[in-house]
Design a protein that fits this description.
The chain is α/β, with parallel strands linked by helices and 551 residues long. 28% of the residues lie in helices and 13% in strands. An 8-stranded parallel beta sheet has the order 9-8-7-3-2-1-11-10, with helices on one face. Strands 12-13-14-18-16 form a 5-stranded antiparallel beta sheet. The structure holds alpha-D-glucopyranose.
């Protein structure tokens, strides 16, 4: 089992499109594939190597499309299979590869297999495709365990005949039974289906939870479960049998030339174990930057750790500052607790909300953007692959103050409104400073856009050389040139610096990040890109600024 061939993804910059919020061609307020295709020239000008398309499959949107009704079709509100093919062709013609999101832990409760399981009844082969268990108690009315689902509430849902089914997320997202060979076969068919449609890679949702072992009798209580480490003894996170599942996927990927690749979404699994997914699949997400704040020492530690874990497994490092599940980094870095590592617990999201209502120290918008630009430039100089989330190239902030009745994320309703959820980073993008939905489409936007989006619009930033969009464009173009330059290596050498400053060299390419607030001397060399204005004599790097140099 090797991943030697087809290594384009090892240093790819991948741009995540959350399709319902990217670009809307038909004016129904929901982004679509024709809209996305119309923006391929924008993506090419931005200079990304690949796109990762979040779910575009038919779905009741109980969880933003991560509740899939049919894995081998396109949501009619988003487009058709022909339009998907046209998008792939346009991306490929522009030299951009495509990852699609694959959601193998759970389907939606509207999926034909789940509907069949409900009608077939207890003990049937149909039920064996999911995780049904008899209830407890004399009339089987009690759930098999007291476990809580990730979005709140019980993890077991009764179906009215004495059985319950397991759902790690919302009740509308029943978990598949991966011990059933039919489930395995069906997913291989799905992977081949999209690979045959030209897809270059897959992003695997909740990648560590597929293999489950619920055979213990009794099953552990919620309190006992919380004490079991992720890994071989945990009933559903990061079990060893998962390797066998992904070995099957790797064999399917290797049927193609070039072989397909995948990136595993793994949040809380111990990072050294993540490398084992990357070894089989190609990549795993290392979300460690999300917990490092804007702190030089912690950032350096993340870089060292991720480089050593990936080197040990022969896989490629991945770097992430934002995605559709977390508070946008321009906002995270603008909050008083900028170095908190609690980026997605509900109370922190709620602080965004309180700040937006003036009940907390407000977000420092300028500092947030300055730090976001600096850390992004630092990230883009690292060896490996960087994942960007739509809108971060505009320096977009979190929209914290959405009206409650507009919120769509199940986390909001399932926490009884205690956690405002993830909608704030999913508001449709502003393309123009005016017009309906700021150029997102000819109609409205499915989540309301704030008036301040106007100043962040693509069209506004295009004509401003100092804009964040132009910084990303310059950085990505320079990165491409630098990677092709003789002597630029994948090994990174740290250069000696003061506290608050990080500097490393990859051969002649040097990157310096000043996380402090006072200027530090600029090393010798030709300045390639800087995340902010340098002094006139260009002898120093101001606070909260990063610079690339050619030495
Ligand atoms: C992943 C997705 C997230 C989704 C969850 C359940 O974490 O990124 O958006 O809610 O899986 O599918």
């Amino acid at each position: 089992m090797t991943i030697d061939q087809g290594t384009w993804w090892r240093d790819a910059v991948v741009y995540q499109i959350y399709p319902r919020s990217f670009a809307d061609a038909n004016g129904d307020g929901v982004g679509d594939l024709v809209g996305a295709r119309s923006r391929v020239p924008y993506l090419a000008a931005l200079g990304v190597d690949a796109v990762w398309l979040s779910p575009f499959y038919p779905s009741a949107l109980a969880d933003g499309g991560y509740d899939v009704d049919d894995y081998r079709a396109v949501d009619p509100r988003i487009g058709t299979l022909d339009q998907f093919d046209a998008l792939v062709a346009a991306l490929h013609a522009a030299g951009i590869r495509l990852f699609v999101d694959i959601v193998p832990n759970h389907s939606s409760n509207r999926h034909a297999a789940f509907q069949a399981a409900l009608s077939a009844g207890p003990g049937s082969p149909e039920r064996d495709r999911y995780l049904f268990r008899p209830g407890l108690g004399p009339d089987r009315a009690l759930p098999p365990t007291d476990w809580t689902a990730n979005f709140g509430g019980p993890a077991w849902e009764p179906v009215g005949d004495g059985e319950f089914y397991f759902h790690l997320f919302a009740p509308e997202q029943p978990d598949w039974n991966w011990a059933n060979p039919l489930v395995r076969e069906d997913f291989l068919t799905t992977l081949r289906f999209w690979a045959d449609h030209g897809v270059d890679g897959f992003r695997i949702d909740v990648a560590a939870a597929l293999a489950k072992d619920f055979s213990a009798d009794p099953l552990p209580s919620a309190a006992e479960l919380a004490a079991i480490p992720f890994g071989p003894t945990h009933p559903f996170y990061d079990r060893d049998e998962i390797d066998e599942i992904y070995a099957g996927w790797r064999a399917a990927f290797d049927e193609y030339d070039p072989p397909r690749v995948a990136v595993a979404e793994l949040w809380a699994e111990p990072s050294p174990r993540k490398a084992r997914y990357a070894k089989i699949l190609g990549q795993a997400f290392f979300f460690d930057f999300l917990h490092a704040g804007f702190d030089a020492r912690r950032v350096r530690r993340v870089v060292d750790d991720v480089l050593s874990w990936t080197a040990a497994s022969g896989s490629a490092p991945t770097w992430v500052l934002s995605n559709h599940d977390v508070v946008r980094h321009a906002t995270r870095f603008g909050l008083p607790d900028v170095d908190s590592d609690d980026i997605w617990a509900g109370d922190r999201r709620d602080r965004r909300w309180l700040a937006a209502r003036g009940a907390e120290p407000a977000e420092d918008v300028e500092a947030g953007l300055r730090r976001a630009r600096a850390l992004t430039l630092f990230m883009l100089a690292l060896p490996g692959s960087s994942y960007l989330y739509q809108g971060e190239e505009l320096g977009l902030r979190e929209v914290a103050d959405l009206p409650d009745n507009a919120r769509q994320d199940p986390i909001f309703a399932r926490s009884g409104g205690r956690d405002i959820g993830r909608d704030g980073c999913r508001v449709p993008l502003p393309w123009t400073p005016g017009g309906p939905s700021f150029g997102f489409g000819p109609g409205g936007a499915h989540l309301p856009q704030p008036a301040w989006f106007k100043t962040y619009a693509v069209a506004v930033q295009e004509s401003d050389p100092a804009s964040t969009l132009n910084l990303y464009r310059r950085a990505l173009a320079a990165r491409r040139d630098l990677l092709a330059r003789p002597g630029v290596s994948n090994d990174l050498t740290w250069l000696p610096t003061d506290d608050h400053v990080l500097a490393f060299a990859r051969g002649p390419w040097t990157c310096l990040l000043n996380t402090g607030t006072t200027p530090v001397p600029l090393p010798e060399g030709e300045i390639i890109v800087a995340s902010g204005d340098l002094d006139d004599d260009q002898s120093s790097v101001p606070g909260e600024t990063a610079v690339w140099l050619l030495t």
